[in-house]
Amino acid sequence: MKILTASQIREADAYTIANEPIPGIDLMERASRACANWIQTHYPPGQPVIVFAGKGNNGGDGLAIARILLEAGYRVHVAIIQHMEHASEDHIMNLTRLKALVNSPVQVVHAVNEMPAIPAGAIIIDAILGTGTNRPVSGWLTNVFHYINNKAKNSTIVSIDMPSGLMADRSTKNAPSVHADFTLSFECYKLAFMLPENADRVGTPVILPIGLHKDYMQHVSTNFHFVDRSIIDTLYLPRSPFSHKGTYGHACIIAGSYGKMGAAVLATRSCLRSGAGLVSAYVPTCGYTILQESIPEAMCITDPAGEFSGSIHDLDQLGITFKAIGIGPGIGMHPSTVKSFERWITLQRQPVVIDADALNIIAGNPSLVQFIPAHSILTPHPKEFERLFGKTTDEFERLGLLSAKAVAWNIYILLKGRFSAIACPDGSIFFNSTGNPGMATGGSGDVLTGILTGLLSQGYQPKAAVLLGAYVHGAAGDAASAHYSQEAMSAGDIIGHLGDVFLSIRESASTNKL
Ligand SMILES: NC(=O)C1=CN([C@@H]2O[C@H](COP(=O)(O)OP(=O)(O)OC[C@H]3O[C@@H](n4cnc5c(N)ncnc54)[C@H](O)[C@@H]3O)[C@@H](O)[C@H]2O)[C@@H](O)CC1
Ligand SMILES: Nc1ncnc2c1ncn2[C@@H]1O[C@H](COP(=O)(O)OP(=O)(O)O)[C@@H](O)[C@H]1O
Ligand SMILES: [K+]
């Protein structure tokens, strides 16, 4: 699914109005009915509803929602927030329609002391500002937001399209906004929803299709995408009936050190469970028994260094052709490991997966960057990202930096998080849609390294591997949390549920082909 900017959404509205064709007021009615339906599905008519409406089209939505809910038997109070002098045409039209209803109470609020009381258990509809927000909110509107956020303790805030005050494409980190429980947004996710800095403002985003014109949506060009199932199903490569283990490549996981052999076990096991033909774990000698006993399906190559890996650079001397290599989980920062990695990276000619301590080694010696093979995949978490690329003032700036580095180095960078951001060498960024807070537990990232290496090994191109790998990793985490709970699940449980996810992708990919 494409993620559009506020101005592209305005264009999409205008294109739909002109080419469907449909009058703007009817498109607004469609959007408002979608919101009202959602509210009616989730909350019974007994609950009081308070609608805060601005003077633009977002407010127009609010007024239409108020009318639809009133007609459906809800008790609705409407407060129009006088944040500007002139109302939009469709706002005025909807105000007229609302006032035509018997007993429809409409209050105009000019100052915060005129705000209506919010009864406990109310459904608060926030339709003050939407995608038309073009500057950070200041002045008395700040107090209005403060009032709503404070009074809403025992109530539910449902924001329409955007939490009021939030801008779709720019940071509003330091500006006031409504803090929604749910944001009912039209047609597509907004960039602001993807960023952790807005997590407690957006609440749970719900995307409601409102039938914006297909031609516009298909042809509009954007650098931002939300990875949903429709993208994933096109990436999946079914295995050929005549294939053999040689078809799916020999993968190598370079991981582990004394006290961190779990990282090697998790990455190796997830690599095996992601379809590699053969998997070798390259570990220090202290990990030999652990590896062989815990994963009999994997081969084990030991580095003579003992508790750490000091001879990684000699890997090529073994005479094995690895189709894919994943390096980093738990390798530690022992000076001889650092030295050995620094030599190893200069010898690589095909894309590799680089994670964890391997990223920290690069951060400590930025001149290594030039040796990272084109189209390699780097998987930093936010701290590792900061060590590699430095601090940024907000997360929009961080996204810009992420994309610039992926382009400059001709690599894929997966910045981990709720919606992991995958920056591609062509400047595009894909946000992964799967995963849950149960995955915020040690070892989850090691599992991802194994999955990515396994996919590369069996012939997925790096872009397909990173998009599919991130999706599968999160979806297996979701399946694990459904089974064990977010609290009780561990990283190993993600691996345990990879099978369910591959089965389901395989099924929907083959159904789509019928
Ligand atoms: N036909 C359409 O264009 C549709 C529009 N829709 C709704 O229309 C919304 C966009 O409407 P508008 O473009 O009228 O914009 P908004 O309703 O978001 O904002 C209205 C006006 O508020 C003012 N404003 C901006 N930032 C402000 C600030 N910080 N403090 C105070 N005032 C500020 C601006 O003059 C802006 O035009 C969408 O979010 C969506 O809810 C939907 O009904 C779908 C159809
Ligand atoms: N709240 C969350 N929602 C979705 N995914 C998450 C969440 N927290 C963590 N994850 C995922 O779990 C993984 C954690 O990786 P990382 O921080 O490297 O863990 P570790 O170093 O312990 O292996 C990442 O892929 C991340 O996207
Ligand atoms: K809003």
UniProtKB/TrEMBL annotation:
Spell out the protein name for this chain. Bifunctional NAD(P)H-hydrate repair enzyme
Needed cofactors, names only, are: Mg(2+); K(+)
The record's function comment reads: Catalyzes the epimerization of the S- and R-forms of NAD(P)HX, a damaged form of NAD(P)H that is a result of enzymatic or heat-dependent hydration. This is a prerequisite for the S-specific NAD(P)H-hydrate dehydratase to allow the repair of both epimers of NAD(P)HX. Bifunctional enzyme that catalyzes the epimerization of the S- and R-forms of NAD(P)HX and the dehydration of the S-form of NAD(P)HX at the expense of ADP, which is converted to AMP. This allows the repair of both epimers of NAD(P)HX, a damaged form of NAD(P)H that is a result of enzymatic or heat-dependent hydration.
The residues listed in the UniProt record as binding AMP, with positions renumbered to this chain, are 416-420, 445
Q: Which residues form the YjeF C-terminal domain?
A: 228-505
Tell me the Pfam families matching this sequence: Carb_kinase, YjeF_N
The family line of this record is: Belongs to the NnrE/AIBP family. Belongs to the NnrD/CARKD family.
Q: Which reaction does it catalyse?
A: (6R)-NADPHX = (6S)-NADPHX; (6S)-NADHX + ADP = AMP + phosphate + NADH + H(+); (6R)-NADHX = (6S)-NADHX; (6S)-NADPHX + ADP = AMP + phosphate + NADPH + H(+)
The note on cofactor binding and number reads: Binds 1 potassium ion per subunit.
Q: Which CDD domains does its entry note?
A: YXKO-related (cd01171)
> Which NCBIfam families does the record associate with it?
yjeF_cterm, yjeF_nterm
Domain (YjeF N-terminal) spans 9-218
Lineage of origin = Bacteria, Pseudomonadati, Bacteroidota, Chitinophagia, Chitinophagales
BP term (GO), one: metabolite repair
Q: Which residues bind (6S)-NADPHX?
A: 57-61, 130-136, 161, 263, 330, 381, 446
Keyword field contains NAD: yes
Q: Which gene is the coding source of this polypeptide chain? A: nnrD
**Example of a GO MF term:** ATP binding
Q: What is its EC number?
A: 4.2.1.136, 5.1.99.6
Sorted keywords for this record are: ATP-binding, Isomerase, Lyase, Metal-binding, Multifunctional enzyme, NAD, NADP, Nucleotide-binding, Potassium
> Which residues are recorded as binding K(+)?
58, 126, 164
Q: How does it assemble?
A: Homotetramer.
